[in-house]
Amino acid sequence: MPRASGARVKVATKRVVVGCRLPDLRGNADHEIQGSNPLMDQLLPAALAMIIGLAGLVWGAHHFISAAATGAKTLGVSPIVIGLTVVSFGTSAPEVIVAANAALQGSSDLAVGNALGSNIANIGLVLGVTALIAPLPAQRHLVFQEGPALLLVTGLAGLCLYNAFLGRGESALLLAVTPLLLWVTIKYKKQHPDPEDLALAEDIQPTSMATALTWFFIGLGAMLIASKLLVWGAQVTALQLGMSELVIGLTIVAIGTSLPELAASVMSALKGHHDIAVGNVFGSNVFNLLVVMPTAGVIAPLDLDTAVFYRDYTAVSLITIFLFASVALALWRSKKPTAYLSRRLGAVLLIIYSAYMVMLVPSG
User: Fold this and answer.
1) Per-residue pLDDT tens for 236-250?
2) Do 160 and 177 form a contact (C-beta atoms < 8 A)?
3) DSSP characters for 23-92?
4) How far is CA 162 from CA 71, 152, 308, in A?
5) What residues does each domain of the chain span?
6) Does the pTM exceed 0.85?
7) Under CATH, what is the fold of the domain 39-360?
8) Pairwise CA distance, residues 62 & 175, whole Å
């Protein structure tokens, strides 16, 4: 009898051991069969789409601008007009196309976030980095021409955004201001030509119209495809991470579409065309508010998050006023037609931009 009882204990023990191990083995096998995390399965293609989309936008914008500028030069368009229209508008082409695609896909916050975020990135990131490379000369025309125009346009954009709605009427009004502003600027520039603008436009080499048109449409097509990839990747990323499309537009998309301005400004600073770096940012920011943002509003009226005005537009306004005041103060102190924006100011702009990025984290 004791032996029989021992046998029962041994058998029972084996059953317990076997019963405990089987579920673990099956669970491990199931885990290996399933492979990877479903969240990562969604995020990796989205991240890849955004990377390819951003790279495609930069590549397409480069060829789009070059082809448009060389084609205009071949047609005999004056260097001043090329610099103020083709080059200035071309550097904002990625933002325009991204905003249009976002509006068509119902991502209104992404479209407006792209425009406002690009303005903040242009001043805080682009000018901040460029000023750290070399102190940036700022001439008087920035205070008496481009600066007041940017402040006026920024204020007008605020009137259109304060009620968290951007309709077709308001968008059409902003777009209508663009040709008027260009006409006034071109007329003034012809009477008071800027040597830096003329030198930049004179560097453009004319080419055949066939070649210019070919690369123009190749660049445009690349931007159209790339913008679709970028918008899709941003939408999926926002959905999977629980972030708002507005924050994605203000950060990832805005930084990516500001890369052409960053590249142009850094190259201008390295080549010694320092004043063009500041002028590029002023001109690009005007186009973002007069063309990029209202393009989305014309396509589809935009119901916006209230944070667009109270947080993001306010940030755009404050950093714009700060830059304008810094330029004006530097010119007043120098008592000369040209003043320098120091590396210290570049560091301050980068700190402001970084603080804004940190502020977006809780609302993401």
Assistant:
1) 888 788 888 889 889
2) no
3) HHHHHHHHHHHH-S-HHHHHHHHHHHHHHHHHHHHHHHHHHHHHHHHHHHHHTT--HHHIIIIIIHHHHT
4) 41, 16, 9
5) 39-360
6) no
7) A middle domain of Talin 1 (1.20.1420)
8) 24
